[in-house]
Amino acid sequence: MIRSVLLGTGSALPRRAVSNAELAESVDTSDEWIVERTGISNRHIAEPDETTSSLATEAAQKAIEAAGIEASSIDLIVLGTATPDQTFPATATIVQNNLGCRGGMAFDVAAVCSGFLYALGVADSMLRSGMAKRALVIGSETFSRILDWEDRTTCVLFGDGAGAIVLEAQEQSGDEPRGILATRLHADGAHNQLLFVDGGPSTTGTVGKLRMKGREVFRHAVVNLAEVLKEVLEETGLTTSDIDWLVPHQANARILDATAKKLDMPAEKVVMTVGQHANTSAASVPLALDQAVRDGRIVKGDLVMLEAMGGGFTWGASLIRM
Ligand code: UT7
Questions:
Q1: pLDDT tens profile 140-151
Q2: I want to staple 79 with a disulfide (CB 3.0 to 4.6 A). Which of 138, 197, 254, 286 is the partner?
């Protein structure tokens, strides 16, 4: 059976780190409130010369290096983002040019915080169907550019960054095939007004700012994530105890704890980076994955569950044997 096997991971963060204390100098908030309600202590904020495409390119270069391949062998780039460099063309095409590869497919996927999971699902389908052989799947965001820095209920929660993986279509057999074993994706457009940006090319002609009813998003996130994780386990005939690592979307430490608890997943098996990166939307899952791969926690053969939930609402989960 053809599977999408992960060859390498990479990530990138803007140079400038901003602590809660620094934020509290300009916003009516406190380190205590942010840590207690979210688990966030720090986030990275892009400087003017750092963009979604520059962060994505750096993450992609590291993933390509880790995979030990030539950039020119990549024939598919799928980039999840809600903060593209330009309304068009797709940021993926800018990354393709930066990497010096040409002629393959390159496009963006807009599913906000679930953007990486959606990009992964699309790339996996294209690899397994034979449309491509080697894919770069990226999540990259500069949410700092769409935050209302006078709204303390949202601006303290987000950060900028990028994560990337290289996938290759490979014939896998045996009881424990490597690669993506199952992906489930969902959307429910009825909840648009709980998490959205109040602008866009076709409505206001402006970029707009992020608006969120946090408490309601929180409630939906815990329920939806627990359900989609169960769906993936059912599809693969595996149980929570088979999973070596849960790499969740990093929105709030309390959401991560509640989801792990619902699944009976011990906290030691949950990769948590929200404290240092805050919520980096589509970048959060591949950023956390790369960190756990590079620090030696996640190793070849491990069963790793990825999950995310975000604006739309959109949500999903994917199980990978590394
Ligand atoms: O990635 C996409 C998915 N997004 C999420 O998953 C976010 C989900 N939601 C959350 O993480 C949480 O709901 C928040 C962190 C956004 C908020 O936590 P909460 O425990 O739900 O707090 P709350 O919204 O109920 O606010 C409690 C209080 C309010 O004051 P009053 O009305 O009780 O007097 C807020 O005005 O905290 C106040 N508050 C703040 N205080 C200091 C809100 N933001 C701040 C702040 N600093 N930054």
A1: 999 999 999 999
A2: 138
